[in-house]
Amino acid sequence: MAIVLGPNQYGKAEVRVVAVDRATPRHSLVDLNVSAALRGDFAAAHTAGDNAHVLTTDAQKNTVFAFAREGIGSPEEFGIRLARHFAGSYEWVSGARVAVESYGWDRISVGGAPHDHAFSRTGGEVRTAVVTVDGSDVHVLTGLTDLVVLKTTGSEFRGFPRERYTTLPETTDRVLATAVTARWRHTGTDVDWNAGYDAVRTTLLETFAGTHSLALQQTLYAMGEAVLEQHPAVAEVRFSMPNKHHFLQDLSAFGLDNDLDGPGAVVYHADDRPYGLIEGTVLRDDVPAAPIAWLGTPGSC
Amino acid sequence: MAIVLGPNQYGKAEVRVVAVDRATPRHSLVDLNVSAALRGDFAAAHTAGDNAHVLTTDAQKNTVFAFAREGIGSPEEFGIRLARHFAGSYEWVSGARVAVESYGWDRISVGGAPHDHAFSRTGGEVRTAVVTVDGSDVHVLTGLTDLVVLKTTGSEFRGFPRERYTTLPETTDRVLATAVTARWRHTGTDVDWNAGYDAVRTTLLETFAGTHSLALQQTLYAMGEAVLEQHPAVAEVRFSMPNKHHFLQDLSAFGLDNDLDGPGAVVYHADDRPYGLIEGTVLRDDVPAAPIAWLGTPGSC
Amino acid sequence: MAIVLGPNQYGKAEVRVVAVDRATPRHSLVDLNVSAALRGDFAAAHTAGDNAHVLTTDAQKNTVFAFAREGIGSPEEFGIRLARHFAGSYEWVSGARVAVESYGWDRISVGGAPHDHAFSRTGGEVRTAVVTVDGSDVHVLTGLTDLVVLKTTGSEFRGFPRERYTTLPETTDRVLATAVTARWRHTGTDVDWNAGYDAVRTTLLETFAGTHSLALQQTLYAMGEAVLEQHPAVAEVRFSMPNKHHFLQDLSAFGLDNDLDGPGAVVYHADDRPYGLIEGTVLRDDVPAAPIAWLGTPGSC
Amino acid sequence: MAIVLGPNQYGKAEVRVVAVDRATPRHSLVDLNVSAALRGDFAAAHTAGDNAHVLTTDAQKNTVFAFAREGIGSPEEFGIRLARHFAGSYEWVSGARVAVESYGWDRISVGGAPHDHAFSRTGGEVRTAVVTVDGSDVHVLTGLTDLVVLKTTGSEFRGFPRERYTTLPETTDRVLATAVTARWRHTGTDVDWNAGYDAVRTTLLETFAGTHSLALQQTLYAMGEAVLEQHPAVAEVRFSMPNKHHFLQDLSAFGLDNDLDGPGAVVYHADDRPYGLIEGTVLRDDVPAAPIAWLGTPGSC
């Protein structure tokens, strides 16, 4: 028996780069959090402390800033440029993974007109991109995290099996809330990334809203199916969706009902933990799988 | 010398109540995080474990849910109802403080039309309200936290004194970014709270955008002054504004400039810590001070 | 009516300084998070963007690092040195507040012997110090946050009043858990800060453990009283103690009891929110109050 | 082309169960955060909203509490019991994954003696266990997260290649700090889990301390190698170790040196972001791989 080195990677994580385009008085900005990782032959660093193969993580950080000087473009384009650069930096580097979080900024409206150089940060979801270069292959996952959505009706949950530990009553009308994490893999790289992101996001929201839900699993699948139907460049979608429970509060001890159809507001308690966690993949059956595209990305089951 | 009990309060914190108005097919919801605290004579609980004066925090929680059944209205109205109720619950209760965080929800747009019962959570700032009832006095602070704003130009910082530890160069063009926490005290309670909140928020954003900044302190003061000038019902504004540093990245080691006026994007590094922290109050000089209105609210210097 | 500037302060927050004493092969380290704030006449910066009075926050940061070069000593001593320096830096500076978080490190034990230069971070509570210099006055608050403690028995809660919204049953045996934030004000500065901290921490823990609790308020008061009785240099203690609820889980639906005295483990659910929040002060009645010592410190009610 | 359902799982996450053994006056407690997930044929729930196969996440939660009533034992034993139960609950359930975080509690010492029923929460790392049942196979990963360690010397970093973006100077004496996440896979389930955990933890700490580090990769590998050499029941170890940078502060602008060998303390700045991130696996070459054991566990590269 021998003890050996297995899969490994290293890089610089969470480089917070902001690039401002000042070419005209109407500035624009891109605000990213970039994490790079290199794969290849780094065995000697592990077994002998020999760093001859180790492109420093400090140099990776410098590269992020230097490349940003030429303009960032979309998170995906920036990730592709960086990942190709890193993967091609030395013969012993076989691949690279670049993960990007992108924070949105809206122009502040002053007197009804969008301001040239003042912005407020868009709340809500964070746009993500994960680019994996493996030899000459390039894989791109576009995505978003923490898109918090809720339906006040149009959600049922019933027909489940009942065993010793099942006490949950069935319901035909519950609050359904989740924080969507979704990532969609593209079949290629000839994509209008920013327009594509907006379009998929719209599909996700419209499908969540429009689906009469019998299970969060059903909503998840419908969202994935709609993305694949409406966006030919997408091969596969993976979701991680917590079921953020909103429990109908029992007010009967105070002589109050809490009927869905009664007068007054219906009162729920929003719970933190525990929560359901639904994870699933929806994909085309004629596109080759690409497990390496997902390597290291959390929430893939 | 004797050891004695000093100021004290207790209550239930972070009750997550969601109230849904289902009176018509077009639902609406209010999503709050409510913290209550009672003040008064609770000495025996402390010194003897005698709970005869202790309205339980569990009952406070129940009250939040029960009152929500009648509809919440604005966070301020709900806070006033609750604080008056708690302060009047027993003769030994002299006052109450109710702090509310309010989370916004936007209707999801489906095919261009706002959906009746599907929502996405508004990102960005959290709206806050702090209601203090002290005897028959009612004080209301409306506010917001974490309104993240940024200017890509229109910000200078120069003319500061230089001593042994001062190494910062002067600048006539820097990125200015902050996460605004602001709270404004009202002179009374006859206020259209929701419309007033929106209007003050607009004033804050427009003034941040429109002020050519020589110091974050100047921007802070301008924002407070504008609120007081435009909103007669506001007596006082307190701000806590971190200076979220965006440092121009030095790219010269790679043979690159990073000039503000050159071609390409200008590249900054967004730093986490340390950050400047600017805190200040702007107020009318003809309105009586109300320190109790601010008791227990962080960020008041 | 005029609009005027009220109380204000500014400074550099969260300077993460680590100082290593390498004078002998047995190294030691101090690991701090330092936040400074200056008070005084900074009106012109606010109203006119005139920074002639503004000692830059960058210089404050530099000062923290430069002063650390001479050795940090205890958090309190370091805070006093810094606050006195800042308060004395210019005639228009009337005072300074320096808040310090201190992170503990234990020597890693190798073969039973403490290592000379390898450490693991002490978990649990963070030690805090808040130094306020106001003119020639110096106030020191020592403290800790997030000291999480729990009793599995020896805690009752009964005898409380019952009104419409009170549904909580009385109990003579519950789990009591809290995360103690405590700050104690010293009557002077001639104190062995590190030994004093350890001694007060021991008093807090022993009193929490040893008090048969009839209310968390009673435990809080007992802890403060013990500190004052045992530590003459302490004038006042302020606590903020969440009641971290552990609810007995009802297992009857599965044909199981959950009796405190039955066989098997007693099963509780640890809840996140809401939680009770108990805040209170215990002090000597013959020591002058010092509200400025507490200005800007959260959790003071 | 067809759109199909791919890999999926669902369950209840973050069930916070606390079990107290009160069999004698000397109580003990186990404090866990349990997340369960089921794998199998849940296609109908996704494609048709048919929940006939969906053991509710609410029932999963109930099961956690009910099983705790019999006593929890070690996190691994509890995870095995639960995962086997879930995997065997219905014919369409092919497997289950149960992930457990375990929080430690120390007895409070009163007058030098450990208290019977008062505890303070152990800080520092969280112990973890991940149990995967797949048909009749059982895989167990024991681990820890956030074990923060630091060396003030005995760490070099040099010999790395230099290209256009490499500006980092070589060093023969730097601070090395990391927050260890490690997970080790066992070859079987006949293990003394609690004793084994303590022993591996000791090996990790002693190896970190005792290794003169030429690269964090080298330290990582040495830690894994030592675990495998000293613990025959372990087949494989995976690490995720951020390089938490501590930069030597340049004080020259203030006329101060910051020499490693000079008088006074050596002053570092602890940075938050970016950080290096080193991930790697160390394993025996004669043990079959078990990718399913790691499915869904973050940090596996």
Helix and strand arrangement:
The structure is a homotetramer of 301-residue chains.
Chain A: E1 3-13, E2 15-21, E3 28-40, H1 43-48, H2 57-69, H3 75-87, E4 93-103, E5 105-110, E6 113-121, E7 126-134, E8 137-151, E9 176-186, H4 193-210, H5 216-230, E10 234-243, E11 246-248, E12 266-270, E13 275-284, H6 291-294
Antiparallel strand pairs in A: 2-3, 3-4, 4-7, 5-6, 7-8, 8-9, 9-10, 10-13, 11-12
Helix pairs in contact in A: 2-3, 4-5
Describe the structure using short key phrases.
homotetramer; 301 residues; alpha+beta; 8-stranded antiparallel sheet; two-stranded antiparallel sheet; 40% strand
Account of the protein in words:
The structure is a homotetramer of 301-residue chains. By secondary structure, chain A is of the alpha+beta class. Chain A is 23% helix and 40% strand. In chain A, strands 2-3-4-7-8-9-10-13 form an 8-stranded antiparallel beta sheet. Chain A starts with a strand and ends in a 7-residue tail after the last helix. The mean pLDDT of chain A is 97. At the A-D interface, β1, β3, α1, α2 and α5 of A face β1, β3, α1, α2 and α5 of D.
Question: Which two chains touch over the largest interface?
Answer: A-D, 87 and 87 residues
Strand/helix succession of chain A: EEEHHHEEEEEEHHEEEEH
Beta percentage of chain A is 35-45%
Average pLDDT reading of chain A:
97
Strand count, sense and closure of the main sheet of chain A? 8 strands, antiparallel
* Spatial separation of the terminal alpha carbons of chain A: 32 Å
Class of secondary structure makeup of chain A: alpha+beta
Give the uncertain stretches of chain A in residue-range form: none
Give the quaternary arrangement of the chains.
homotetramer
Rg of chain A, please?
A: 23 Å
Q: How many helices of chain A in DSSP terms?
A: 6
Widest beta sheet: strand line-up of chain A? 2-3-4-7-8-9-10-13
Number of strands of chain A: 13
Shape of chain A: globular
Helix content of chain A: 10-25%
